[in-house]
Amino acid sequence: MYLYIYDSFLNHKKYTDLLTKIEKRITDLGIKGKVAKLSVLKNMKELILDGVREGVQTVVVIGNSQSFTKVINIVANLDVTLALIPVENDSNIAKVLGIAPGVLACDVLASRIIKKIDLGKINNHYFISNAQIINGDILIEYDQFKIQPTTAQNRIVFYNLADPGSNVASKPDDGLLEAVITPMKSTLFGKKPIPETILPFKKIKITSNTEEQVAIITDEEIIMKTPAEISVAPAKLKIIVGSDRQFE
Q1: Which terminus of the chain has fewer Cβ atoms in its 10 Å neighbourhood, N or C?
Q2: pLDDT tens digits, one per residue of 168-222
Q3: Treating both helix axes as pointing N-terminal to C-terminal, what angle do 65-75 and 44-53 enclose, rounded to 10 degrees?
């Protein structure tokens, strides 16, 4: 059984025609299911757990990348398959997964190509795309090494899957995460990045070099704090992908 979750922003009238077309295509493909539309009165976690108790096996998120990432921590420990129907063409997650926007995503859903992909994990919180630290005065414990940024201005990104076109070869099915440390140098013309360092890893520890905790921002914009352990959860999520996905 399918559970279709509509994000609350889809209540705007500009999405009415698109949703009508999506619903018609779902009907034509014979993959109709239970529908849940989010609002201030409807909690996503309760809707999903109620659906699973009623026999739902596939949770389909209709929305954008933010809609999708909100569901990750709810379904990560459930025996369900996750799918996405993006309503816009700006979802990097959808592009990596090989899912076209709008009505075309329904055909990907119906094809049911299911892959198990890794998730990143910060303490007890999962993320699918990346997490990052901006200008953090931190210490990274990596295997037997201790590493810290060489400049006060810096950006550190922990990738599970990289954005399309990125020079980071991060795949969501390789059992690894990648830490990309980019120092920034101030010049008369603004900030200039210094060559980055890329560290593939399975688990690292991060602590602050000061008494102040450092923020770690995940792909759904939830802010975690140091100290933290970042690790990979291999093959944690069952997900429906397209044939044009950017991994095996």
Answers
A1: C
A2: 878 899 999 999 998 877 665 666 667 788 999 999 999 999 999 999 999 867 7
A3: 50
Sign of CA dihedral 177, 180, 181, 184: negative
- Tokens for 109, please give them: 């859903």
Rounded mean pLDDT, 56-61:
97
Using alpha carbons only, give the angle 175, 178, 181 rounded to the nearest 5 degrees.
Answer: 170
Please state the pTM of the whole predicted model.
0.91
DSSP string, 138-163: EEEEETTEEE--SSSSEEEEEESSPP
CA distance 224 to 132: 10
Report the C-alpha gap between 205 and 99 in whole angstroms.
34
Superfamily name and number for 2-111: Probable inorganic polyphosphate/atp-NAD kinase; domain 1 (3.40.50.10330)
